[in-house]
Fold each of these.
Amino acid sequence: MTISESSTKQPVVCVFCGASSGKSPVHLESARALARILHDNGIKLVYGGGTVGLMGEVARTLVSLSGPDSVHGIIPQPLVKFEQNHDPNDPNAHTIDESIFGKTTIVKDMHTRKQMMAREVIEGGPGGGFVALSGGYGTMEELMEITTWNQLGIHNMPVIVYNVNGYWDGLLAWVTNAVESGFIGENNAGIVSEAKTAEDVLNCLKTYKNAEGRFNLTWEEQ
Ligand code: AMP
C-alpha cells in the first residue's frame, strides 16, 4: 500500500533505537524529547516492544503523556526474554505492563515485526515516518532496511536520523561519500533526513517530499 491509498486518521511514527541507554544522559533525554513532541502533535508510536534502554524510555514517556492507546510495541518471540522486564523469580514468565508501555504484539520473527511496523506508519498517512534515535547494530539494521524500502518504492514515508550530539555523523558522511562515489544515485541522496532536535524531527515529518524515480515494488516482490 502506498501513502495515497492509505487512511489518514492519525499519523504514526516508528522509532528505531537502542536496547541500551548509552553512556551519556543526552540519549535518554532525546528519547523523552521525541516522546513529548509526538504527544504535543497527536502522533502515535510504533516501536520494537522492549522495556529496556532508549526503546523503553520513548514508549514509557509517551504512554505517560498520551495514554496506552498511543503506543504499539511489536516484539519477536525470541527477543521477549531479553528486551522485556520479567519476573526474576520465574525466568519463564515474561509480562509487559501495557498501562506503562502500551499495547504489545508478539510476532514470530524480525521480518514480521518490520513489516507490521512499516504498515502502521504507511496506514497512518501524512505526518508519520521512521525515526532513528541513537542505537547499535539492531538500530542500524532497521534504519538501513527501511531506507532501502524507500529506495525500492515499497513505502514513500520520511526516514529521519535524530542526530544527538553528532551520533549519526559517521553515517551521514558515508551517505555523502557513497553519492559522490556513484554508489547511491543523486535522486536517492536525500532519503535519510537529519534532525538535530525533536522539533527538527517534527519539521522533517511535516515537510518531507519523496523523490521521483522509485521502482514502486510491492510487499510481495521484495
Ligand atoms: P541495538 O541497536 O543493537 O540495541 O538493537 C535495537 C533493537 O533492534 C533490538 O532491541 C532489536 O529489537 C532490534 N534488532 C536487533 N537485531 C536485529 C536484526 N538483525 N534485525 C532487526 N532488528 C534487530
Amino acid sequence: MVHRSRITTLTEFIIQRQSEYPHAKGALTRLLNDIATAAKIVNREINAAGLVDILGTVGKENVQGETQKKLDVFANEMFITALKGGGECCAIASEENEKVISFSNEFSGLGKYVIAMDPLDGSSNIESNVSIGTIFSIYRRVSDAGGGTQEDLLQPGLNLTAAGYIIYGSSTMLVYTTGKGVNGFTLDPSVGIFCLSHPDMHYPEKETIYSINEGNYIYFPEGVKRYIKYCQEIDKETNRPYTSRYIGSLVADFHRNLIKGGIFMYPGTTVQPNGKLRLLYECSPIAFIAEQAGGKASDGYRRITEIDPETLHQRSPFFVGPKNMVEKVEAFMKEYA
Ligand code: P6P
C-alpha cells in the first residue's frame, strides 16, 4: 500500500508555530487564517474569470490613477471583508484605497494588528492570463485602542510581525514568514486546503536570473545600465551571462527568482525618480521575505526594511534578490552615481 507522506496543512503549521510563542493567544493565527480564507475566494474568482464577466474594468481609477479591473475591486473587497469580520485587525492600508480603512466597531477596535496589502498585484496581466498575486504585511498597532490609524500603518519593514504573498499561477501558493524563515503552501483545490509544499525556502547558491523591464533602459541610472551589461558578460565562474526573465508581475517575478536564484530590479528612472513600486505594501513585505530567505533588498543605497514610510502610497526604487547580486548592483550604483 502506498502511504502518502504526512501532509501538513497551513492551519496545522500556523498552530504548531504559535506554540513557539508562549504568550501567543492565537490572534495572529486567526489573522493568517482569515487571509488564507479570503485568498481561496479570490482564487476561485480568478480561475473562473475567463468564464464570467468579471474581467474588464469598472471604469474607475484607483488612487494610483490606474484603471481598476473588476477583479482588483473584488479582491480588495474580499480581503477587507474577511479581515473586518475576523476581529484581529483594526485597520487596513490597501493599494486600492487612498486612505486607511479603520475598523472602530467594538469587535475590531480591540484588534492588535494592522494590515498593509496589495490585494491583486499585477492586475494589468489579468486578461493575458499571466500569474498575478496578493501581497500582505502585518504590523502590531502602535496606537492604544479604537480604530487603527495611519500612524499604525506607517512603520518600517523592520517592525513587521509577518508578511507574505499569494501567487495565482499554474497552482495557487501562499508563501509567508513571521520572522522565523519562509514557508510555502500549495492549494489543493479539490479540498480547498493549503498544504506545506516548500518548507524553509532559501535563495539557492547559484545566481541565474536578472529581471528588469529593459524597455526602460534609456531612462535607467548609469549604475543600473552598467549592471545590466555586467549580467550579459561571459564569465563561467560567476555563471554569466545570466538568463533574462521578466513577467511584469512582481509576485510572479519575485517567486520565480526566489526558487531559481535571481535578482528583481525596478529602479528609479529619469521619468519616475522613485520607481513604480510602493514601499509600504509591495517593497517592504517582499523585502522582509527575501531577507528571511537569505537574500537582500535595497533601494540601491539603503536597506528597504529600514526605510520609514512617510505616506501610504509612496514609491521606492527596488532591488531584491540574493545578497551578492543586490550588493553588486549597489556597487555599480555607488560607482556611477
Ligand atoms: P512595468 C504590475 O502592474 C506592477 O505593479 C508589478 O506587479 C510589476 O512588477 C510592475 O508593475 C511592472 O511594471 O512598468 O514593467 O510594466
